[in-house]
Write a structure and sequence with these properties.
With 151 residues, the chain is of the alpha+beta class. The protein folds into 2 domains: 49 residues, no CATH class; 85 residues, no CATH class. The chain is built from 1 helix and 12 strands. The chain has a 5-stranded antiparallel β-sheet, with no helix packed on it. The longest helix is centred in the N-terminal third of the chain and has 24 residues. The radius of gyration is 23 Å and the shape is globular. The termini are far apart.
């Protein structure tokens, strides 16, 4: 009986320590990578595939909203100012944080946000996401997207 109880305690302690080490191995400050990993369970149980959680974002992002940590997007320079572009959301550094701002017409981003829709305007294909109109353009052999206006 003591041996069984000791085995259960060791299993629980081992399982409790396995989760933080998996997070530390991801190298993303505790965030899980987007690749599935295999979690080993106790004796008599086979391995189990663990699907990682997607990055957490607030349900509603609106202009003027502030965050304290740096968003994970890319830096876009425009008009002598630097912005962070993260999947259709533009941030500007304000004091000790970042504020969601409306992009400027003419800004160029390397990719369209997830969930965009197609819009034909004057016979030209544009893309729309959350009221922002993106127009495709070519730059150094790559397709980029310029902010063309707002709906």
């Amino acid at each position: 009986m003591k041996k069984l109880l000791l085995s259960i305690v060791i299993l629980l302690v081992t399982a409790g320590l396995a989760a933080p080490s998996a997070m530390a191995r991801s190298g993303r400050g505790g965030a899980m990578s987007h690749r599935p990993s295999v979690e080993m369970r106790g004796p008599g149980h086979g391995p189990r595939v663990v699907k990682p959680m997607p990055p957490v974002r607030p349900a509603t992002i609106h202009y003027g909203m502030r965050v304290t940590s740096r968003p994970s997007g890319i830096v876009v320079n425009f008009g002598g100012l630097s912005f962070i572009y993260d999947n259709g959301v533009f941030y500007s550094a304000i004091n000790r944080g970042f504020e969601v701002v409306r992009p400027r017409i003419g800004m160029i981003v390397p990719s369209l946000p997830v969930g965009h829709t197609v819009m034909i305007r004057n016979g030209v294909k544009h893309y729309v996401h959350k009221g922002i109109i993106y127009s495709p353009m070519h730059s150094n052999g790559r397709v980029m997207f310029r902010i063309a206006g707002f709906i």
